[in-house]
């Protein structure tokens, strides 16, 4: 079947496109660098012509409050309108575990707005929420860089390997629309400060991590239930999210 992956050149998109192609699908990796822009609408109708499924996984170039909200609102509206016009039968959206529990974080408000637009559209939807990707921990650590230390909150997370998210999305994309939320999380609850210290150590970075709980997450207030799935029965525990952080770390920084 024809599947369009918006954001198909990104961290999650690249392996997803590859996996779907290997399964024999006709896959379009749609993004500005391939001539498809969901803010201007450029190239979208042509990309969606004849498609059955659209996977909606672009990311905003800016994480600032106003621009990120504008990005996800505009991009999602443009996608649902074009998908409805093209007769697409399944819209798969990637959101974030706990986004609705962190209303003082602009990025999370933008992801909630994205989900609401998708849920209200006439195109049947599957909403997949993932926890933070292992690959994102390094960027979170850099956000706390302060001279020869890195300041990070010790908030609890349950991060997941990006490859595990791509694999789950590949299965959702070829299935029937779920019409509900499913959540993906990695196998272990771990603290952000510890995760950051382990990434720095694996990179041979001499900076020390200093616990600074007052920083919260992206400047917003969080507690140990904000970013973790807890005992939420929606989490697909067994089939995806099996890669452990240590296993990923040793592969990612093997060189
Ligand atoms: N980071 C996390 O821990 C986390 C956790 C849960 C969910 N998520 C969600 O996962 C999704 C994918 O994230 P990612 O890390 O794979 O992103 P990424 O690596 O930053 O890739 C971003 C993708 O978006 C595309 N893009 C940017 N502007 C666009 C536009 N105007 N129109 C169409 N495509 C555009 C980029 O295209 P070009 O390559 O052409 O620029 C690229 O393919 C995001 O929606 C994010 O909110 C992230």
Compact description:
The protein is of the alpha/beta class and 255 residues long. It has helices at 13-22, 44-48, 65-86, 106-120, 137-143, 162-174, 192-202, 245-252, and strands at residues 2-6, 26-30, 53-56, 90-96, 125-130, 145-146, 149-152, 156-157, 181-184, 190-191, 208-211. It has a single domain (2-252), classed as NAD(P)-binding Rossmann-like Domain (Rossmann fold), CATH 3.40.50.720.
Tell me what the structure shows.
It is built from eight helices and eleven strands. The mean pLDDT is 95. The strands form three sheets. The protein has a six-stranded parallel β-sheet with strand order 2-1-3-4-5-9, sandwiched between helices. Strands 6-7-11 form a three-stranded mixed β-sheet. Strands 8-10 form a two-stranded antiparallel ribbon. It has 255 residues and is of the alpha/beta class. Helix 4 (106-120) links the parallel strand 4 and strand 5 (125-130). It has one domain: 3-Layer(aba) Sandwich (Rossmann fold), CATH 3.40.50.720. Helix 1 (13-22) packs across helix 6 (162-174), helix 3 runs parallel beside helix 4 and helix 5 packs across helix 7. The termini are far apart. It is globular, with a radius of gyration of 18 Å.
The assembly state of the depicted protein chains is: single chain
Strand percent estimate = 15-25%
End-to-end gap: 38 Å
Give the overall form.
globular
> SSE string, helix = H, strand = E?
EHEHEHEHEHEEEHEEHEH
Count of distinct structural domains:
1
What is the name of the CATH architecture?
3-Layer(aba) Sandwich
Poorly predicted regions are: none
Text of the CATH class: Alpha Beta
**Helical proportion, percent range:** 25-40%
Q: How many H/I helices?
A: 8
Which ions, cofactors or small ligands are bound in this entry?
A: NADP nicotinamide-adenine-dinucleotide phosphate
State the total count of DSSP E strands. Answer: 11
Structural class: alpha/beta
- What's the rounded overall pLDDT mean? 95
Major sheet attributes: 6 strands, parallel
CATH superfamily: NAD(P)-binding Rossmann-like Domain
* CATH-derived topology: Rossmann fold
- State Rg: 18 Å
């Amino acid at each position: 079947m024809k599947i369009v992956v918006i954001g198909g050149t990104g961290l999650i998109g690249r392996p997803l496109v590859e996996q779907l192609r290997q399964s024999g699908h006709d896959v379009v990796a749609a993004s500005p660098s391939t001539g498809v822009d969901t803010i201007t609408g450029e190239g979208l109708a042509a990309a969606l012509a004849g498609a059955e499924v659209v996977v909606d996984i672009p990311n905003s170039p800016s994480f600032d409050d106003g621009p990120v909200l504008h990005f996800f609102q505009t991009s999602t509206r443009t996608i649902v309108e074009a998908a409805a016009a093209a007769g697409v039968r399944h819209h798969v959206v990637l959101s974030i575990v706990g986004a609705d529990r962190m209303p003082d974080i602009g990025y999370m408000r933008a992801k909630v707005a994205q989900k609401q637009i998708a849920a209200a559209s006439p195109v049947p939807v599957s909403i997949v929420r993932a926890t933070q990707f292992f690959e994102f921990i390094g960027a979170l650590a850099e956000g706390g860089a302060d001279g020869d230390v890195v300041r990070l909150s010790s908030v609890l997370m349950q991060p997941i390997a990006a490859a595990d998210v791509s694999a789950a999305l590949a299965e959702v994309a070829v299935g029937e629309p779920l019409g509900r939320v499913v959540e993906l999380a990695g196998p272990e609850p771990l603290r952000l400060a510890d995760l950051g210290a382990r990434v720095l150590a694996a990179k041979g970075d001499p900076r020390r991590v200093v616990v600074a709980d007052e920083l919260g997450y992206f400047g917003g207030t969080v507690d140990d239930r904000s970013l973790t799935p807890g005992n939420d029965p929606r989490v697909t525990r067994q089939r995806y999210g099996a890669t452990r952080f240590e296993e990923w770390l040793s592969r990612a920084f093997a060189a």
